[in-house]
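= Paired protein data =
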Amino acid sequence: MSNWRDKYNSLSDRRKLLVNFLLQWLYWMLAWWLYKWVWPDKDEPLTLFNLLFYATWMAFWMTIVFNWKKVRQLFKKKPNE
């Protein structure tokens, strides 16, 4: 566990955001699939497009919410030098 943490801490801020997004994306893919598997909805069947769309949407917003300071710092306008 500490080996993974050391590797994560040595990454740049952009790569940390990417790793966070990918982990969130995997989490939401699994969560949405389990939800639809346990409580199937006959009106809206689970399709690959729905699964990808919802996982990407949730991962995008959760990454922004939980890493707002990093996101703001990375995309801040730099003064002209």
Remarks:
- The CA atoms of residues 21 and 60 lie 7 Å apart.
- The longest helix spans residues 13-38.
- The mean pLDDT is 87.
